[in-house]
Amino acid sequence: xxxxxxxxxxxxxxxxxxxxxxxxxxxxxxxxxxxxxxxxxxxxxxxxxxxxxxxxxxxxxxxxxxxxxxxxxxxxxxxxxxxxxxxxxxxxxxxxxxxxxxxxxxxxxxxxxxxxxxxxxxxxxxxxxxxxxx
Length: 134
Prior knowledge:
By secondary structure, the chain is α+β, with helices and mostly antiparallel strands.
């Protein structure tokens, strides 16, 4: 089953996105480095957010049966753009996992980075660099 998202141009380079099943809303804006006002997430910022969110969700699901709680885990993601053509060049991820995880859990969690559907959907020219914090 597909999930519907509706995008409506609101003017002034802003687009309102509506999640069909829930009605939740997100507004995007043209980034300042591309002539916009940067008043919120840009479409490419949402890709960065999607990547980080997907990885954390897949990680939580992967260790759920083990009884491991990932609450407090975080990913800081920095998106780097290319100019010609204008596109995402790379994502730099800084992963912070909760203290006290076993080496087995950490290995399982790190494998989730490449298993994330968003990561798998990225063009191979987009580099994903991962740094982990103890």
